[in-house]
Amino acid sequence: MHLLALLLIAAPVSPDYATTHGTAGVSFGVSGEAAPTIGATYFLFNDFAARIDIGLEAPITPSGSGQNTLYSLGGAIRWYPWKRNHAAVFLQPGVTIGQENSPAVAAETAFFFQAGAGVGVEYFFASHFSVGAVLQLTLKFANLGGPGGTPVYTTLSTATSALAANIYF
């Protein structure tokens, strides 16, 4: 059994990673803030990618007070320094802006800005499909331009950690 474990550890890196220059992909994710996102990834260099994520929550019915359209737009870079078999570890700094429900006044919206960095892992089930998770520490400034001169709320949290399914082309 120990011999099998040693063979798995010493196994070469799979050439099937979709982390090479020119590879593009889409991702479908959900963060700890429960906001689903759709994203795009493009590998600028081998093992180095630029990402963009867009989230939208728009109520269709009923309309009225408290039924706000919320959105987010995030950008990040990913660097994949470690790979073994079908798993790849990445480092990811990023920023996000958007509109959310105001933490100060119920049924009102306000803008937010957050910046953070995280570490994640992506498991490649096939050369063009993977699932991933990232644990991210983020500094968030919420209630920017909030209603009625209310204060800006500042938090440091891991609420932006996320799970995603990725398809590469």
List keywords for this structure.
1 helix; 9 strands; 169 residues; mainly beta; 5% helix; Porin
Q: Would you spell out the secondary-structure blueprint of this structure?
A:
Blueprint: H1 2-9, E1 24-31, E2 36-45, E3 48-57, E4 70-84, E5 87-101, E6 109-126, E7 129-144, E8 153-157, E9 162-168
Number of helices in the DSSP assignment: 1
The share of residues in extended strands comes to over 45%
**Large-scale geometry:** elongated
What is the SS-derived class? mainly beta
Gyration radius, in Å = 19 Å
Question: How does this model look, in words?
Answer:
This protein is mainly beta. It has one domain (about 20-169): Porin (Beta Barrel). The protein contains 1 helix and 9 strands; from the N terminus they run αβββββββββ. It has an 8-stranded antiparallel beta barrel. Strand 6 and strand 7 (about 130-145) form a beta hairpin. The longest helix has 8 residues, at about 1-10. The chain starts with a helix and ends with a strand.
Question: How would you sum up this structure in a few lines?
Answer:
The chain contains one helix and nine strands, in the order H-E-E-E-E-E-E-E-E-E. The protein is mainly beta. The chain has one domain (22-168): Porin.
